[in-house]
């Protein structure tokens, strides 16, 4: 590999593969779970709250890099659908924290298991060398995701700092 890394063609190729994987997984979930109608934005909020229960709307918006009003609307839809619960904050009664409801947890688990089955079946159909390459690439892909998140957080911080001047 060159000093510059994978280059523009490689970066585009990675972007293309990630996009195709997400699109295929999103559409294939409806084959296995025909009742599944959660938009990806709601699935991502369920995933975040499963990892970090007790976030407020502002914290959730910040973590997901979404506008607060967007998250507020999504949360309201999910509370109405019985997927999330709002509870008073322990130390600030004016604030609320969010948690998955039992139904929200069940939907998330069903969604995750369906995706895991789909990925497992696809991986089992690959040659050994491709399965091994995917396994070896996972730590690097996690590091890439963390780097992208850090850069985005940096950019948001810089924008906020400029706006405060």
UniProtKB/TrEMBL annotation:
Q: Name one Pfam family in it.
A: MarR
Q: Which UniProt keywords apply?
A: DNA-binding, Transcription, Transcription regulation
Gene3D superfamilies per record = Winged helix-like DNA-binding domain superfamily/Winged helix DNA-binding domain
**Molecular function (Gene Ontology), one example:** DNA binding
Regions annotated as coiled coil: none
Domain HTH marR-type, chain residue ranges per copy: 11-150
Q: Which PROSITE patterns match?
A: HTH_MARR_1, HTH_MARR_2
This protein's name: MarR family transcriptional regulator
């Amino acid at each position: 590999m060159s000093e510059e890394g994978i280059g523009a063609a490689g970066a585009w190729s990675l972007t293309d593969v990630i996009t195709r994987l997400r699109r295929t997984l999103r559409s294939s979930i409806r084959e296995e779970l025909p009742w599944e109608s959660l938009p990806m934005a709601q699935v991502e909020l369920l995933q975040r709250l499963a990892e970090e229960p007790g976030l407020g709307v502002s914290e959730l918006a910040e973590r997901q890099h979404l506008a607060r009003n967007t998250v507020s609307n999504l949360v309201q839809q999910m509370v109405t659908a019985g997927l999330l619960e709002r509870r008073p904050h322990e130390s600030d009664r004016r604030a609320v924290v969010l948690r998955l409801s039992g139904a929200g947890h069940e939907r998330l688990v069903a969604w995750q298991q369906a995706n895991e089955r789909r990925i497992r079946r696809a991986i089992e159909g690959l040659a050994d060398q491709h399965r091994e390459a995917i396994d070896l690439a996972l730590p690097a892909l996690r590091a890439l995701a963390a780097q992208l998140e850090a850069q985005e957080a940096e950019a948001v911080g810089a924008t906020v700092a400029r706006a405060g001047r």
